[in-house]
Amino acid sequence: MPPRSPTSANAVSSGGIISRSRLFDRPYLLLTLAALFWSGNFVLGRAVHGSVPPVGLAFWRWAGATLILLGPAWGHLRRDRAVLAASWPIVLVLAALGVAVFNTLVYIGLQTTGALNAVLMQSTMPVTIVALGFLMFRDGVTALQALGIALSLSGAVAIVAHGNPAALAGLALNRGDLWIALAVVSYSAYSVLLRRRPAVHPLSLLVATFLPGSLMILPFYVWESLSGHPIRLDAPSLLAIAYVAVFPSILAYFCFNRGVELVGANRAGLFFHLMPVFGSIMAVLFLGERFEPFHAAGIALILAGIVLATRRSGSGGIYASDRPN
Q1: What are the tens digits of pLDDT across the range 81-119?
Q2: Has this prediction a pTM greater than 0.70?
Q3: At 291, is the secondary structure helix, strand, or coil?
Q4: Which contacts qualify for 237-241: CB closer than 8 Å, 24 or more apart?
Q5: Cβ-Cβ contacts under 8 Å for 39 (sequence gap 6 or more)
Q6: Helices 202-226, 252-263: inter-axial angle, 10-degree rounding
Q7: How far is CA 178 from CA 165, 171, 190, in A?
Q8: Among 153, 165, 174, 310, which is least packed by CB within 10 angstroms?
């Protein structure tokens, strides 16, 4: 059975669970939800670094997500097995870049760098996606998209730096920042290469990438545990693993993959800039922090940038350079 065409991919995605809810045809809502689910990942990874070693957190994140998905996805996997088998090279590449490499490097980096540095470096992801899209597929970028990216990036920086440029000057790069930078490149490549995904049900794609991604991490997890860094099995550790298995893994990847399918990687990547927005709102709501003028300015710049960069062309279609294929 030959792989289905990209047109069939849309048919697959619009069938099954996606056709039952208009939510899954609203890319910007899906991408906003992905950013919301991801927003706590960096802070949590830093918070539990003393009790959950980085590779262990990455392994159990994806192993747990795989176990949760196996039941709902089993029927789709049976129907899609021939397509997945025929498309194994790109499936393994997506699993490596988006699952095994990205998250493991993030958690390793958070051992020696702060959440501030990590979030700031992740804010460069939309620019990296555009650059890799050009290098891999000669994707272009319109003037409005470029302006939108610049505006939203400046808003993200304003929030992360608390409106104080001197705070950026005081940031010192260290080894952890290098790991975060490599993670950003890895996930940017995953985002761009999603256009080559096989035409299968979304749940099939999640399991097909989560499972091999977990197996890729497994040898490093065993080595980490045997070298004297086992996971401390207490309530905070288990709750952290449960959170990262469900929200930034299953739900966020489902929403992000569908968003890229509908609008392309360039515009989808812009929504990473919403992460500092959600992080600030959560800090105000749950940690008692004050809502400052720099929050308002940063949020306004990010939203203005997203509106500009996601505007449709005059013909009503999406930008040709950003069209998913």
Answers
A1: 999 999 999 999 999 999 999 989 988 988 887 766 777
A2: yes
A3: coil
A4: 237/48, 237/51, 237/52, 240/44, 240/47, 240/48, 240/52, 240/57, 241/52, 241/57, 241/60, 241/61, 241/64
A5: 274, 275, 276, 278, 279, 282
A6: 130
A7: 22, 14, 19
A8: 165
**Residue (of 279, 258, 277, 262) closest to 322 by Cα position:** 262
| The residue to which tokens 């930078």 are assigned | 181
- Which tokens is 70 given? 């196996």
- Single-letter residue type at 265: A
Cβ proximity of 213 and 91 under 8 Å:
no
Question: What pLDDT, on a 0 to 100 scale, did the predictor assign at position 316?
Answer: 37
Rounded Cα–Cα distance for residues 43 and 213 (Å): 23
For 49, phi and psi rounded to 5 degrees?
A: -65, -20
Here the tokens at position 3 are 């792989």
| CA-based end-to-end distance of the chain | 21
Task: Please tell me what DSSP assigns to residue 312.
Answer: P
Q: Rounded distance, CA 205 to CA 318, Å?
A: 25
Structure tokens that stand for 229 in this block: 């860094």
